[in-house]
Design goal:
Two copies of one chain form a homodimer. The first copy, chain A, has 13 helices and 18 strands. By secondary structure, chain A is an alpha+beta fold. Chain A has two domains: about 280 residues, Zn peptidases (Aminopeptidase, 3-Layer(aba) Sandwich); about 120 residues, Alpha-Beta Plaits (2-Layer Sandwich), CATH 3.30.70. In chain A, the strands form five sheets. In chain A, strands 1-2-6-3-7-17 form a six-stranded mixed β-sheet, sandwiched between helices. In chain A, strands 11-13-9-14 form a four-stranded antiparallel β-sheet. Chain A has a three-stranded antiparallel β-sheet with strand order 4-5-18. In chain A, helix 1 runs antiparallel to helix 3 and helix 4 runs parallel beside helix 12. Chains A and B meet through strand 9, strand 10, helix 6, helix 9 and strand 11 of A and strand 10, helix 5, helix 8, strand 11 and strand 12 of B. Chains A, B: Keywords: Hydrolase, Metal-binding, Protease. Chains A, B: InterPro entries: Cyt/Met_Dipeptidase (IPR051458), Peptidase_M20 (IPR002933), Peptidase_M20_dimer (IPR011650). Chains A, B: Pfam families: M20_dimer (PF07687), Peptidase_M20 (PF01546). Chains A, B: This is Dipeptidase.
């Protein structure tokens, strides 16, 4: 198989580039046509890889692409999940090269979606092609690539519920996460959940002159700032009543094991150009992003934000706020207690609205499971005998918990990205090493998984 | 004179409309051409009114229009000040009729600048025309209309310093303020000063994935909110060290006198559609806007503010912040202590920049001065014997304090607007009653001022 990959590596890359050129931004309605184009392209690529069928399923939002190759119903079935939608690329001006014109610089692919998740799910399609072409496919494959992951997978839940038979599988394999370093393979065994919402604070019914009314009428921006500030204490502990009630506290052993994962604090700070980290007192950076919940403002706006000065006392202020959740927090419960709390701390001088965006449950994969062992063996072989490290990722793939509920199978998060990939940021990139290493590792997972299931 | 005004009222209005149609927004460079056009139009209108000369003076920013009519050097000279620039009109979508297409609805002129300040300074030009046409001009008139009042009059100071001889006058008359109600004439004897600045808070060197980094790296929006919130205590008292050091505390008598001014709290709240006011504990609304300093965020932005959700941990957050000042606070000192304080409360996890925009000193006119008496008599006569009330306005006309420093003369703030005029807001308007009442009152000020100076 390595030979086949070697012989076709340039074509694999140029095919990925074609996919990256499609601005499939799910959050912004003006890219609706591109989303459709992208779904068609994904479907075609699955067929070309040698699948028996590939089809586009409509949803009330963006379509889901499904494909499969069933070689023997008696054999195990691996369901591949990925997403063809990407984050908005703005601010565009910060991109060194256009976000939708993939460019190679120092062995890396620069483009929106290069890693998250086009570059990663496309590895599976090329891995399938490789296994089919070299007659080394050891079990059945199903592929589901959705178009709404970046906006909360609103309609995938329904699709999964309505297609349980079609999606029946023994394990779900997902590449939408990172490894610690190119010489330190790792597998994510935990994902944080998410509650994402938007708040609106309204003072007077119109923008006012800050001289005539300033000091006497509530300023919704000041009020919003005070409300946001009040939700964390001096230890960066979230003050929403009940927020931590269901948080699993790990044992000292578990925590020290976690902290054995390689982590270079100086390199981390240098990469981000920050002097000091900031997080919850009493936890390490690995713990803060792995096993602790958070509350971050993802966006804020209100009043005059144009050129120069405007002495306005605005009528409204807004913020997009998200909370990362850990086992056993429930995103619906957290949305509920956040909303109650936010309304309760609003002063009588303003009106407040909390608008839910989306959310998902946290997730954990047992390291003693067959699924995990197969991934461990695959990576170990691909990395020349180096044992992969189990890690707790800070990100969220809300759909993973839903898969377990609806399909009753575990997901393996075998991603190949790196922290430096700048996901969701300008100049997102994905290493060529990682792209090809993924294509090489995935067939090994199939092989070991089939063996272990015997 | 009343007859002349009556006979020409329609023309006066249509001339004002032509002026209001010019989008003279000084804050936004894209209106530079319109600013120039507006200055030319103002110059022409001064000549048409019967001035001996009218000229445009260039500045590094927008031009100043100057005109004069000297009937006898032995007589007193009144210097009229106003501004032809207006606030930005956005958000445009909230205007019932286009901001730069003046429209009459229920006896009011709706347009950006209808009151602030085109509608008000144009009263003086029509008053001059009236006095000249009816041979009733009792003293010399000088007119200075600038184009940078809404952006801090950056270059008027230099212009004034360089033209002291030309601008030599006995009193400065300004209509850029309000009366309490159409049946309650009033004169502003106090203006608040202003310190306006912009802050930038930077966390990491790029936008980050809020899942991968959230909880471990400072979020500049959360930090900015905490910094802003920390600058007021639970009594809405500003916590910046030294902020109140130079604030004049009024005597119990002065305060009770102030609070005798008619004020309908229910009507005030109904007009703004708010349930509760919010302000510094221990002071009435009239005091909060008249004799107490404030700190308001005029604009805030950072992170993702587009459609939908983006789980980004942003690199930067910004806010435009202004403080209204009262005697004897000094805007430069306040800028200085704000900056020191803001930098001192920034956590080591972020970098902070404070960028000054503009400012001005607070101002007070003695009610026992000849200037004030003349205004008082003029209004009293125009309002059929009703005595005008002295008030402390919350707004700022930074240049007024500078006039006193540089020209050594007092300014009279005889404005004719109303609180409902929605200055700086969508649907700014100015009452026809107020426009014509101003044109009627101004000549009376000239008459009484000349008499009292004899």
């Amino acid at each position: 198989m390595k030979t086949y990959i070697e012989q076709n590596k340039d074509r694999f890359l140029s095919e990925l580039f074609d996919l990256l050129r499609i601005p499939s931004v799910s959050a912004d309605p003006k890219f609706k046509g591109d989303m459709r184009r992208c779904a068609e392209a994904v479907k075609e690529s699955i067929l070309k890889a040698g699948a028996d069928l590939a089809e586009i399923h409509e949803t009330p939002g963006h379509p889901v692409v499904y494909g499969e190759k069933i070689i023997d119903p008696a054999l195990p079935t691996v369901l591949i999940y990925g997403h063809y939608d990407v984050q908005p690329a703005d601010p565009y001006e910060l991109w060194e090269t256009p976000p939708f014109e993939p460019t190679i610089r120092n062995e890396r692919i620069y483009a929106r979606g290069s890693c998250d998740d086009k570059g990663q799910f496309y590895m599976h399609i090329k891995a399938l092609e490789t296994m089919v072409a070299t007659g080394s496919l050891t079990c059945n494959v199903k592929i589901m690539i959705e178009g709404e992951e970046e906006v909360g997978s609103d309609h995938l839940g329904t699709f999964v519920r309505e297609n349980k038979e079609k999606l029946k599988a023994d394990v779900i394999l997902i590449s939408d996460t990172s490894i610690i370093a190119n010489d330190v393979p790792s597998i994510e065994v935990g994902l944080r959940g998410l509650t994402y919402l938007e708040v609106e604070v309204t003072g007077a019914n119109r923008d006012l002159h800050s001289g005539v009314y300033g000091g006497a009428v509530a300023n919704p921006i000041n009020v919003l700032c005070e409300m946001i500030a009040s939700m964390k204490d001096e230890n960066n502990h979230i003050t929403i009543p009940g927020f931590y009630d269901k948080v699993q506290e790990l044992s000292a052993e578990e925590r020290s094991l976690m902290n054995e994962a390689p982590f270079d604090l100086d390199e981390y700070k240098r990469d981000l150009a920050i002097d000091e980290l900031e997080g919850e007192t009493g936890y390490t950076t690995i713990e803060r992003t792995g096993i602790r919940p958070t509350l971050d403002v993802n966006g804020i706006w209100g009043g005059y934000t144009g050129e120069g000065a405007k002495t306005v006392l605005p009528s409204k202020a807004y913020a997009k706020i998200s909370m990362r959740l850990v086992p056993d927090q429930n995103n619906d419960e957290i949305l509920d207690i956040f909303t109650k709390h936010f309304l309760s701390i609003a002063p009588p001088s303003v009106k407040v609205v909390v608008k839910p965006h989306h959310g998902g449950l946290p997730y954990v994969t047992p390291v003693d499971s067959v699924e995990y062992k197969a991934a461990e063996l695959a990576m170990k072989e691909a990395w020349g005998g180096k044992q992969p490290v189990p890690t707790r990722g800070g990100g969220s793939i809300p759909i993973v918990a839903l898969f377990e509920q609806e399909l009753g199978v575990k997901s393996i998060l075998m991603g190949f990205g790196l922290d430096i990939d700048a996901l969701h940021s300008p100049n997102e990139s994905y290493g060529l090493f990682n792209f090809y290493k993924g294509i090489e590792t995935i067939p090994l997972f199939f092989k070991y998984y089939t063996e272990l299931k015997k």
